[in-house]
Write a structure and sequence with these properties.
The protein is α+β, with helices and mostly antiparallel strands and 81 residues long. Helices cover 28% and strands 51% of the residues.
Length: 81
Amino acid sequence: MYKNDMMEKEEIFSKVLRAGRRTYFFDVRATKAEDYYLTITESKKFTNDDGSFHYKKHKIYIYKEDFAEFKDILAEMTDYI
């Protein structure tokens, strides 16, 4: 029960973006010291030859002290594209 309480406390706000075989999860979380940070998880579905499937996940963590620069670079890259 304690572990579930910690998981609920840790997630503050979430959004999901479904994009074909990929799903992106944006989660605001909190450290034990109540500092917020962002995790972005990419989950991609793969189908095996036998019809079964599995997911591969990649996660990045972005901490609040890096938000401004991360946002600026992301905007620059998306504007370029």
